[in-house]
């Protein structure tokens, strides 16, 4: 069972970084911010290497990526990507819409806006940028967001370009697509003022709400990403990238706290003992496994690979120590092996015998490695170059164990745990962009929009919408259209307009398997205009919009509401034809034939009167 966590006592310190796409063309060219899934029509190949930055040093994270020796393939489109994304043409002037969005958010957060926006280069050689760097520009600093647990400072607000989208990884090659590269982002980074997991979630939710309130940001899956920075007393800052689900942020923080506390405990148990002391050299043990039943080992040997092993001094029983749910110290080492060496993983003594590796093989291996009872061992099987790279990384990670927690960038896993990505970058990665002129900014004409929370309360009070309907409307992006319609079509209830705008697109897709995009705003406008003039029955709305989505020309006359005299005549015919039926069956029959031209309550009331 994980220990109860007292976040105050362990001095949890947390910060959030939000990256939100702006709904505009790309940041340094006029290409559309269009994500595509059709086959690309161009491809280029690149190799990237780390070089010294402005400080005269190579950034540690860049050096880590470069040592992998990967090749990068970039897929492009001739009609929606250009030479800027391919790094074959200098960047154009910064997108003024993106700068305006950054300024607006800065004002909403009460931040101090810079006099001049200067673009910087941030070294990135993992292939996600063709140039080997990401362009980013500071817009404002020292803002504030209020939470139920106190104020959280906003350290910086930047506008930057999004990275290329990874499509495939294969042996020594990574394939990226350039449709996402260059899409403008607003990056908001908080101060480390967050001190419990729920507060982290609250901050992320508030910042997301502020961004959406501008009406200038993109919506949908993948348009916003959260990174979480976490540290505890005695530890160091860890950055967890790619938290997509707001609900998972508290879990990510709590699991990272568990991991750091477990690693600090491990460091105490190890003391000053070096787990990478002389005598712990990597040995080729392939001959011991020529008849192994392990699929991994058998596959490696059959393809010309090797099996190598390392004795780990004094760590028997510790490699299997849990650091997060389902993850152990061995998982930490395995991450380094996978990332640096490209191997599938590793085996360690605390999890064996298992995976086809049997006790006699373990005994022979321990004997060859000269393992004492309190020693552990690690085993890796793959191509020899990959195994050697993997063990170099494993040895480096083992050497860090007595120190506690290495500064890392980690990837958020769907279950709330995290995996090692790369070392934490340093200041050596930043240097000025020489191809883009600075931009003098004037925020005096930038207006602060109504917050979504305020908008929701206003809709509830002025238009008598329910809490759920007002909330869903303000977060849907349809609120502006809704307010236009309610101001024009005063004889149609606002709640009905809201419900139609929100529910019909879902209904078309779910019930009829139709594309909701086929129903345009002007189609909704026509429908509500006819209803407002009593020329279209409420009950006919679904049928009309289905016909529009099917591409049919709608005959609105057949849906014209019946007058009282016309409805009475129709209902008398129904009663005459249904003398033998129960009254409930008569109602059903009338509703079925007349619902497109009269409201249900009106039909029922008139039937009751005629039945007397």
Poorly predicted ranges (pLDDT <50, ≥5 residues)? none
Q: Major sheet: size, sense and barrel closure?
A: 11 strands, mixed
Terminal CA distance: 72 Å
Structural class: alpha+beta
Question: What is the CA-based Rg, rounded?
Answer: 32 Å
Whole-number tally of structural domains:
4
Count of individual beta strands = 23
Helix content: 25-40%
**Would you tell me the overall average pLDDT?**
90
Beta-strand fraction estimate: 15-25%
> Which term fits the overall shape?
elongated
Number of helices: 17
Structural features, described:
By secondary structure, the chain is an alpha+beta fold. It folds into four domains: 13-26 and 37-237, no CATH class; 283-403, 2-Layer Sandwich (Gyrase A, domain 2); 452-559, no CATH class; 564-611. Helices cover 35% and strands 21% of the residues. Strands 1, 4, 6, 7, 8, 11, 12, 13, 20, 21 and 22 form an eleven-stranded mixed β-sheet that branches. A four-stranded mixed β-sheet has the order 2-3-10-9, with no helix packed on it. A four-stranded antiparallel β-sheet has the order 14-15-19-18. Strand 7 (133-147) and strand 8 form a beta hairpin. Helix 10 packs across helix 12, helix 11 crosses helix 12 and helix 15 crosses helix 16 (583-594). The mean pLDDT is 90.
